[in-house]
Amino acid sequence: MPITQSLIDTLAREAGFTAAGIAAIPAPDGAESREERRRFEDWIASGAAGEMDYLKRRNESGELIRSSVRAAFPWARSVIVCVANYNVDEPRSVDPAPEGAGWIARYAWSGVQSEAGSMRPADYHKVLLKRLDVLNASLQEALGLYESRCYVDTGPLVERVYARYAGLGWTGKNTCLLNQQLGSWLFLGVILTSLELPAAELPPLAADRCGSCTRCIDACPTQALTPYQMDATRCISYLTIEKRGEIPSDLREGIGRQVFGCDICQDVCPWNSGASWNTGASWNKGAGNRRAPIAADPELAPRPQLVNPALDWLASFDEQAFGTWFFGSPVKRTRFAGFRRNLAIAMGNSRLARFRPTLESWSRSADPVLAESAAWALERLEGGVPEATSSNPP
Q1: Between 20 and 30 A from 261 (CA), which of 122, 195, 196, 280?
Q2: Residues annotated as part of the active site
Q3: Residue 146 CA, distance from chain mean position
Q4: Is-contact 86 298, C-beta < 8 A?
């Protein structure tokens, strides 16, 4: 049986994905490959990757490993890209919120029902990797053995680039993959393969439909975006997750109430306002992009407590409670110390006087980063409006 886009999509859906496609890896000396390498090299050289040293790794030849799949895997000929839609009918970060609420990025809300009936954390990396293994096994049964590797955010490639090559969407001005029917609330998983993709199966590239819109760029509070480029060192997601130590003081006000990640550039995107939630449109490349209902993903359902969580509730966590709530969740990546640093900044931005006792306690912490962040936040409270009339910034 030959490999086809239809076979990939069918088996991927059976494995639990929303959609999938396959792309050929450009030849190393091809114009497309040279352009991708140049763009990535320039981005790294500009310092925009910040402290994310894993993006800067090079092979023995001095090539940036993530600049080209073939730099890491010379045998690779194609990339299967699978999409899982994690959008749900819940508030956006830019919607009105309860006073004193923080924000945890939508992708980190996920949980799964435990045997006791409560929800425990679910890490999309593990959920998607299991599905990729199932898909890979099904493909090997159908096509015969081939060399492969499965990755979810950990492979030496930029997933959204190959998602575009696979016809699953275009790269938006906020640098996210955008699909005309599904928007950008998409997890991506990939299977690198040694399979040669027939020329007849090469998918057409999706048209860039951002047009003249600049809502994502205009809405970014820290000016991290220019069209199709992101300076990670200014991105709220980077600052609240990847950045260790003190967050630059000139960027703290822009962080607002975000305590883990940021959804603003996606929340304001018109393609997301038109995308379906868990009962909306499933994208079918082989059926003229027709709309069909899809069910909520039972392994990626949101935990209600993490939608607009109260800052004082999150601040009440000791390290053990933090582990209970977030072990196995993407939130664990920020670590307990980083999480409390983020909470202190969000409390300061809230201007609410009721956070003063917590911040005063943290300002005396043995952790110098937390102590400095809490002291900064207390100064924000000093200049803030009275609690009864204060507003909650997005």
Answers
A1: 280
A2: 153
A3: 30
A4: no
